[in-house]
Amino acid sequence: MSDTEEATYESTFVPGLAPPKIPDGEKVDFDDIHRKRMEKDLTELHTLIEAHFEKRKKEEEELIVLTDRIEKRRSERAEQMKIRAERERERQAKLAVNQICFFPTIRKRKQEKRKRKLRRKQMMMQGRR
């Protein structure tokens, strides 16, 4: 290993964990040290599991809120589309009624307009002679 690799490993060491103290002159009980380490790991694992499930519960609640919002928006949109379609049907019905009722009037107006145009042409032709 080079010096830079060793420095990298030293900088990534977590200083929060203190090594267990070994009493001077007494017998070292490795089983006790191992048991304490296992208990510590177990409590850490429990806290991680609890944090995970709390986070998951929050995410599920957010997902439920989001799906409710989406469903509400869909229903509002469907209602809007229904209203627009109804208005369009009413508009088309009015147009149809207007065309049926006023069709003779429109035809008559067009005929009168053609007659006026023809008269103007005739007047202009007579004025040139």
From TrEMBL:
Signal sequence segment: none
GO process terms (BP): cardiac muscle contraction; regulation of muscle contraction; sarcomere organization
Ranges for region Disordered: 1-27, 109-129
Keyword Cytoplasm recorded: no
Coiled coil: 56-95
Gene Ontology cellular-component terms listed: troponin complex
InterPro entries: TNNT, Troponin
Keywords: Acetylation, Coiled coil
One GO MF term: troponin I binding
Function: Troponin T is the tropomyosin-binding subunit of troponin, the thin filament regulatory complex which confers calcium-sensitivity to striated muscle actomyosin ATPase activity.
Protein name: Troponin T2, cardiac type
Organism: Xiphophorus maculatus (Southern platyfish)
